[in-house]
UniProtKB/TrEMBL annotation:
Record organism: Paludisphaera borealis
Enzyme class: transferase
Keyword Transferase set for record: yes
Keyword annotations from UniProtKB, A to Z: Transferase
Domain DAHP synthetase I/KDSA: 18-256
Protein EC: 2.5.1.54
Annotated GO biological process: aromatic amino acid family biosynthetic process
Protein name: Phospho-2-dehydro-3-deoxyheptonate aldolase
Coiled coil stretches, renumbered: none
Shown residues within the full chain: 70 to 333 of 350
Length: 264
């Protein structure tokens, strides 16, 4: 298998617009769940960049549970993300939900995100595999490690070799957190695959009070980065407000993560 350690014994290291990911290089991805407007995205982006984030995230096409919830700004959102990323010299990552969006999204993004709900959208994976834009693929909420790695094969086998995995929590009986963070996936995948794997403690816990500890644990487990949602006014966020860190909390967490990386 193309993702396996047997196929490629060394850790893969990818470069997204000058930012290395893998082999000890951490992707610190941060930004709001959804792109809501240029002023807000810029404000959050400056703060997370100053705190040490190296990739800016924001959704323009949002996979909402309810069709009546905010669905994202679409192309207007992509334009905003591109502008803000360029102004701050940050690469950007955004979700693509449908093969018909690939051409449009590829004009604006440096990395595609495949969301948890689309991890087994095989037609989407095949089409993404035909591009040469790096991909962040999130684990489906009831996908096994094997399922995730087979989904990755759909992308790799089409020729796109730059795939980064993301653990974002799985559904279990536990309901005091949004999902259950399966941190053992990090060393588990490291044994099986050469690909980088990052952790998203925001969607995994849904709780700002738990995100810092889980981000620390993720980095200690040997992952290749963390993905965190940040909003300057979580009460007013149009998507995933309750799990957003405010910029000050994110900056404090990044200080702690740097101290941890130093002692490691
Ligand atoms: C997101 O990153 O905002 C998102 C929708 O994540 P997931 O696909 O992991 O639910
Ligand atoms: Mn979100």
């Amino acid at each position: 298998k193309l993702a396996s350690r047997e196929f490629h014994p060394e850790d893969s290291v990818f470069e997204v617009k000058g930012i290395k990911i893998g082999g000890g290089h951490l992707a610190m991805i941060a930004g709001p769940c959804a792109i809501e407007g240029e002023a807000l995205l810029y404000e959050v982006a400056v703060r997370v960049r100053d705190a040490g984030a190296n990739i800016l995230r924001g959704g323009a096409f949002k996979p909402r549970t309810s069709p009546y919830s905010f669905q994202g700004l679409g192309e207007d959102g992509l334009k905003i993300l591109r502008n803000v990323g360029d102004q701050l010299h940050m690469p950007v990552v955004t979700e693509v939900m449908d093969p018909r969006q690939i051409e449009l999204v590829s004009r604006y993004t440096d990395m595609f995100q495949i969301g948890a709900r689309n991890m087994q959208n095989f037609d989407l994976l095949k089409e993404i595999g035909k591009t040469r834009i790096p991909v962040l693929i999130k684990r489906g909420m009831s996908a096994t490690v094997k399922d995730l790695l087979m989904s990755v094969e759909y992308i790799l086998s089409q020729g796109n070799r730059e795939v980064i995995l993301c653990e974002r929590g799985i559904r279990t009986f536990e309901d005091s957190t949004r999902n259950t963070l399966d941190l053992s996936i990090v060393p588990n995948v490291k044994g099986l695959s050469h690909l980088p794997i990052i952790v998203d403690p925001s969607h995994a816990t849904g709780r700002p009070d738990l995100i810092p500890a889980m981000a620390m644990a993720a980095v200690a487990s040997g992952c290749d980065g963390v993905h965190i949602e940040v909003h300057s006014c979580p009460e007013k966020a149009l998507s995933d407000g309750p799990q957003a860190l405010v910029p000050d909390q994110y900056a404090r967490l990044m200080d702690e993560l740097r101290r941890l990386a130093e002692v490691m």
